[in-house]
Automatic annotation (TrEMBL):
Keywords: Metal-binding. InterPro entries: HARBI1_dom. GO terms for molecular function: metal ion binding. This is DDE Tnp4 domain-containing protein. Residues 32-94 form the DDE Tnp4 domain. Pfam families: DDE_Tnp_4. It comes from the Eukaryota. Its cofactor is a divalent metal cation.
Amino acid sequence: MPRTMIPGHGDWKRIEHGFRTKWIFPDCVGVMDGKHINILAPDDTSDYYNYKGTHSIILLALVDDDYCFSYVNVGTNGRASDGAACSLHNWLRKTSGMYITQRCIDFEDIQQRVVVPGSWRAQLQRTLEGLPPTRYSNHASRLPKAIRDTYAQLFETTEAVPWQCHMI
């Protein structure tokens, strides 16, 4: 049986403090990413058949400010939508109500049909006001613009890159 270990209240505070001080990104408790991992098709089910036309499982990971994994989930079937695969936030709210402070999120008042902004918005404004002004040019140099245009053209076409089928 899989064992689930989630960070405790002190861990969430440490992670948030790290993002706030090291990255100037307050109220962040992790960075999440997911990846479809191709598998051989099971004989008895189509649950693993995904929108890309292959069979896969989903790897989902959450890392802290030091690039250390704080949560990993492997095995959600590939048919699951992004919303279903990334429902970690809702699951944590149900199983560990103290993983995040109320100021970190906006509150949804269902009866009044309004969203009450969290106090994090005022804190973010104060944080941004405290940053020193910088001077920079809004004009991109030729090389980054050429690279961006090349990638844009590549991603907007249906062609594949040579190494694409060899990577997981």
